[in-house]
Amino acid sequence: MNATLLSVVGLGMIFIGYRFYSSFIAEKIYRLDPDFETPAHSMRDDVDYIPTNRVVLWGHHFTAVAGAAPIIGPGIAVIWGWLPAFLWVILGTMFFAGVHDFGAVWASVRNKAKSVGALSGDVVSPRARTLFMIVVFFLLMMVNAVFAVAISNEFQATPSSVIPAWTAVFVAVGIGILIYRMGVPILWPTVVGTVILYAVIYLGERFPIELTAGMVPVGAQWILILFLYAGIASLLPVWLLLQPRDYINGIQLFVGLGLLYGAVLIASPTIVAPAINPNVPASAPPLFPLLFVTIACGAISGFHGLVGSGTTSKQLNKETDARFVGYLGSSGEGSLALVAIIAATAGFASLGDWEAMYSEFGNGGMTAFVQGGARIVSAGVGISTEFAATLLAVMAVLFAGTTMDAGVRLQRYIVQEWGTIYNIPVLQNGYVATVAAVTACLLLAFGAGGPSGEGGMLIWPLFGTTNQLLAGLTLLIISVILVKLGRPVVYTLVPMIFITTMALAAAIYQLGNLYREGGILYPLLWIDVAIVLLAIFTMLEAGSAFLREKRAAEARASA
Amino acid sequence: MTTRDARPAPEPGMDRSRGWFARLQDLLDEFYAAPYRGALARARRDEDDLFMLFVFAELMGVPNPASYYTLELQPVLLERFHEWHRRQGLDHSPLDGFRCC
After folding, report:
1. What are the sequence ranges of the domains in chain B?
2. Cβ B27–A55 below 8 Å, yes or no?
3. Between chains, do B3 and A45 touch, taking CB under 8 Å as contact?
4. Any residues with CB less than 8 A from the CB of A385 and at least 6 apart, and which?
5. Domain map of chain A by residue range?
6. Which of A96, A97, A346, A435 could form a disulfide with A269 if both were Cys (CB 3.0 to 4.6 A apart)?
7. What's the confidence (pLDDT) of residue B98?
């Protein structure tokens, strides 16, 4: 199979989804009204609520949701062959993620820009809100732990990426100070910062950094360094690091996507991996249901709902912009996942090389994306494979690193809130709350991955499962709102039932696997038990809320 | 705050009367600022709240070594006093003889 053909077919289908399916959903299901006064106007305060250009909002939604996860997930899932991953990413983007992200923005805009969490309490039940908060906390803990493990693995696989990745932190701080403190117009810091970032890649190649194993294994050293950094970074003012880092990532995302798709078009590589892998390693779980949780971001992800109903809905200028921002934003993420599939299947010299990379479940991921993508970029653009590998590794590490910054910060807020709710003053302290958040993540990373932390990628399917549960909850909220309005619910309810069932089945399957891996005291086993219970409660909540609203709607109709 | 506003929505980067360079700058500015506008405004407000506490400290019986300087600022900050004490969780002005509500 030719990779160019696959990318054209994939992008074409995503475009068809946007052009026709999202238009149908906008007109017939969500019934967008160009005259509806959005919260950005009705509650305008020029701070949180402010009408914003839809292209800018689309850029935010896209860059906020497209990070390291749509690279790692497809990079692992191609172990079953490229076809299942391709179909799930494309059909998931068209019929699941698009409707989910678009729906989260719409539901929030129609309800005074409330977040999905708040809406779950209002629309479904207070119990659903509690469920939602627990799922979000699990999700944050897992995302921080698993991304630390992924970065640690990548630093060891591509030591040339260490200097450029850490330089990006200083470039970001420089941009933050220039723009916020010194009022320099944004264009020049952007240009100079980007040039420095790419120039430093040469430096990284000349001086690869490899830590030496001493008392602490190398992987564990990186994980400790990363969490020390994330803890400090999460306490810094937003303008100094997080905001400029996010901005740099946005630029990197556009540059990276352009580079990868451009290289695929020019080099036109052949996919060496089989469409359906007949020699799946014994350690790999069955495709059903694990594919649907291994690829969460890139097909459908509950995290998007948090973004869509967080900042996006407060800034939407017109209700009709929700389609462009929500559906097309998730389509952008689908296109990143698609190119990750191509990199991880067409970027290898032979089937033997590919099979060597995928000798065990959990391998591949970011490393397959970097190595495979580098071969394609090198063939297409003419730069050396080593330079291209460092460039892609830096891109992926920066995405994951920024998510860690933001994730630890959010976890700190949650711990501080618990301190307030349960009246524990010590937890209200920012430093104490940060240490508590970081410790929880470290326990998970080392608890799952052993003393070196290297086995921590076992967290990945659990992270995906939790993410899909969150997506299921968001789709449930949208469905209940649609029932109340007397509109068809099949377009949101079917994805909701499918994704929650897959999440539950995957969580149950993993129970046995995790028990075999680490015995009864394995922390991941107990997290998985909690996820199974959460999934069951979510389904019960969904059933009861749905029937309640359906009966109410029928009673209204007969009255 | 829930004020209705009749001002047209800003469309950075779309104002054709400006050159392409200025429009690009506007778009980048907005792309940089929009997601963090609320977080930054809240951080700035927290700093301002602390400053208000310094300025009005003596009126609440807290000794303030810099009162010689901060006294001058009181009339300037008076406008924000009401919103400030409400944000601190006090429905009514905490100061006797200095009632804003």
Report:
1. 20-87
2. yes
3. yes
4. A374, A375, A378
5. 3-558
6. A346
7. 66
